Amino acid sequence: MRRASLILIPVLAIAVFGFADPAAAQVRPPVQPRPQQQTERIFVAVDGTYQVGTKDFSDSESFAANAETATYSGTYTVKPGPAFNISGSGRVTRIFAVGIGVSRYSRVTPIAVTASVPHPFFFNRARSLSDTVNANREELAVHVQARAVLPLNSLRMQAAVYAGPSFFSIKQDVLTRVGYTEAYPYDSITSAPGQMSNVSKSKTGFNAGADIAYFFTRQVGVGGTAQWAGATIQVPSAGGDNVDMKVGGFQVGGGLRLRF
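^ thats the sequence. predicted structure below, dont judge the formating
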């Protein structure tokens, strides 16, 4: 009997440990798969945007005419309008990237002209005129950007915020001399084309914005952007002084997104 007991003890131990191992294996937590990492490092955005807000400015001068002083003033209306942006950036770390962008905005700038010109025969009897003439304006800006790529749960989505310096180059038609015609008995004057000068200036400013994109495939998608960039440039006035003119502004739009 004692011999049978000695044989039974190891058999029971094997049975207990044999059943314990599968039970322990069943309660182990499942191994979670590692999240996928975005491996693309180059990003390109091509956007059609709309530059909102106005940056009107004024000009004036006085000049001698008929032994008296004539005056002129012009108000330049810079209207909102379409613009074009293209930018590219390269990821340096998982969340930090550096990039460069180029934007172009071009519009006709109406000038509301008023003038007062003395009478050739009578003192203190000035003739006045008012008219609107068109001038051309073109803004080209190069934006250098430090970008923070925001972590999102989906690989199909990508968002970023950015800021940096902007280098503006502007061409603006400026009216340097009001034009008018007159005929006997010279009681009135009629508007005529004046002297126009195309002024080219450059200035460094600042830009900041945000971008969000959705990718249909790993490389191709669409996105939207909102960006402000601006600077103040001095241009020569008709009277010989300088006039402060703001360039750039707030842009919103969207377009194609690529990543490689």
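The beta strands are 42-52, 57-65, 68-76, 81-91, 96-117, 127-150, 157-182, 189-215, 220-236, 242-259.
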